[in-house]
Amino acid sequence: MCLQNFPCQEVERHNKPEVELKTSPELLLKPILICRNEAEKCLIETSINSLRISLKVKQADELENILTKKFLRFLSMRAEAFQVLRRKPVQGYDISFLITNYHCEEMQKHKLIDFIVQFMEDIDKEISELKMSVNTRGRLVAAEFLKQFI
Amino acid sequence: MSQNLYFLRERERMACFDRASPALKETLLKIYRDNKPTELDQRLFEFGAVEYHIRSSVSDPHYVHLSISTPLLSQEASVAQGISQGTVQTIKGILSDIVELVEPSREGYQLTLRLDFSKIPQGKDSSKIITEIASIQAAILSCQLKEMLSNVASQDTSPGMYKLIKLLYHPREPFFVVRQPEKTIAVFPMRFQENTDVIIATAFFQELMDVGSSEAWAKVPLCTWSPIPPPELRGEQMEDLSTNGGFVSFDILPHHVKGKRLDKTVWNLLNFYAFVKYHVKCTRGFIQRRMRKRLDNLVKILHKASSEEGGYVDDAQVAGCGCIKSLVSVSKTNTLRRRCRNFTKKVKRMRCPIKIHGFRRFRRRWLTVPKFSSAFKYTKID
């Protein structure tokens, strides 16, 4: 996360995250793709003044699929609360972060990395807990319904 | 355990499972508690197809006329004869001293009742009696289904044959009753508007099947779910068989419709759609609450990352502790200094874009203009 301030080379007095524009290849580093399996992967794209991290979360069945979509969309729509979260994930991924040099100045880098790692762990944990809660609720409701027949 | 209690509390609040119509009950209670006799001619509409007409007059203060129009469960029966004799007898049996059937019924209504409010006892029982009167529409529909299910025990169908009856309780949500020699099957085609609802409901149906098939629940009707129409529904119209939530079937055996259980079985089957829709709605609300709570937790973690740097701290958080306040203010000064330094560097870079190594020292030594102070002061010449 060695980011530094770099004004835009195309437009005067503009300062844009180069990883989003991708107009100057000399300012971009090689992207890194880390795959746990076909369903879970992480793409890290770096440039001189910004860094983009995109995550694809594991979705085993339809219920996990809708829970993941709902939850990550919920977070993305409130991206301003997170500052480093992108409103729309990169195509092919479920959620994306955009970290610029300004974020590195305002926040401690190691804490930022800790946050992203914890975010990834929490997402998996939250989706699993949500799925378990929904199934448990369904079981309790089913038992209540069948109790009425006795 | 906490989820169980939460669900039970929700169920208590659910008006859709009450047999009594809330609006009708409120109106009748108001008339009963009113000391002065009033002229009233009121129509109430429920679920789009149920209509009540309440009429009371000053000349006859003790009597209230209640007319009911309700779409019957079975379309064949309603076209043929209206309300069956069995249903009429059941209604006559409900509070026979207070409720009297008026024949013929008012035009446009299937049933007209004359309620004698002077015979309702004072006290807590009055509310109970009025609740029972307000449940007459549910009683009419329950009677129809009871007649169909009670024929299971009579075995009036020959082996290998079955009769399919289409019933309509909620608008656009028909369900089917298949009468077989040994049992009656109630089949519910499930339809939902959104894909999320389909998936939540499907998970619920899987749990319903799992719970119902366990040994502890051997006494309840067997429940099955399938994504395709069961063979009993072959030959029905495509619009009734096209669903996105599959088909839920309950096997009703003779012991499920004996005695008091008949009433419970009938009411549960009539309200199955409402039950599932309510569960899906509550689950969506639950998911939303959990997501909001998790969002708050994640945002707190991020704020910790920025607050330890000293940039963004709420006054409320540091209000109580002076030492932390001073630490924050010192850190803020450092940040400001660093920003000023960066700004001046930027300005210098803009003015001197080309940097020659060692030129700064040369410039400082040889190119600076020496400062000297003059003994003569400047005087303005007029």
UniProtKB/TrEMBL annotation, chain A:
Family the entry assigns: Belongs to the ARPC4 family.
InterPro entries: ARPC2/4 (IPR034666), ARPC4 (IPR008384)
The species this protein was found in: Rhodamnia argentea
Gene: LOC115753284
A family per Pfam: ARPC4
Location within or outside the cell: Cytoplasm, Cytoskeleton
The entry's keywords: Actin-binding, Cytoplasm, Cytoskeleton
Protein name: Actin-related protein 2/3 complex subunit 4
Keyword Cytoplasm found: yes
Keyword Cytoplasm listed: yes
Coiled coil (UniProt feature): none
From TrEMBL, chain B:
Annotated compartments: Cytoplasm, Cytoskeleton
Keyword Cytoplasm attributed: yes
Pfam families membership: P34-Arc
Keywords tagged on the record: Actin-binding, Cytoplasm, Cytoskeleton
UniProt KW Cytoplasm keyword: yes
UniProt superkingdom: Eukaryota
Subunit: Component of the Arp2/3 complex.
PANTHER family: ACTIN-RELATED PROTEIN 2_3 COMPLEX SUBUNIT 2B, ARP2/3 COMPLEX 34 KDA SUBUNIT
Family: Belongs to the ARPC2 family.
Name of this protein: Arp2/3 complex 34 kDa subunit
Protein species of origin: Rhodamnia argentea
